[in-house]
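Now for a sample.
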Amino acid sequence: MFSLVFAAAVEAHAAVPPEGPAGLLQKFGVEWQFVIWQFISFAILASVLYQFAIKPIIATVDERNAKIAEGLKNAAATTAKLAQAQQDAAATAKQAQVEAAKFAEEARKTAREFLDAQQKDATARANELIVKAQQAIALEHKKMLEEARLEVARLVVTTTQRVLAKELSDAERARYNAAAARELAEIKD
C-alpha cells in the first residue's frame, strides 16, 4: 500500500515539469522514484546487516576484549604467584642449606668425638699391651734367671760330683765347698 501511494505521488510530480534544480535533475535522467527506492533498499539492507552481521561481530569483539582483559588480569596474578613461588623456593632452599650445614657440622662433631674415643681406646689398649708385654718380659726374665740358677746349680752339682768322685784331700774339699757356696750365694742375689 505504501508503494502505491508513493508511485502516485511520483507520477503526479512527473507530469509537471519542474523548473530549477529539480528540473535540471530530471533533464539528466535522475528519477526520484528510483532514488527513493534505492534509499529504502539501502536502509533495509543496512538494518539487516546491522542486526545479523555487525551486532554479532561487535558482541564477539566485546567478548574477546573481555577475555583478553581477564587473561591480562590472570597473567598479572600468575606473575605475582610466580614471584611468590620463587621467593618461597629461595627461602626453602636457604633453609635447606642451613639445615644441611647444621647436619654436616653435627656429623663432623660426632666423627671427631668417635675418632677421639677410638684413639683413646686404642691408646689404652696399646698401653695395656705394653704393660702386659713388660710383665711377660719380666716374667720371662725371672724364669730365665731361675732356669740359669738351676742350670748353674746342676753344673755345680755335676762338677762337684766329678771332683768328689776323685779322692780329694780335706783341704781341697773345703775349698770346693766354699767356692760352690759363694757361687750359689751370687746366683741367689
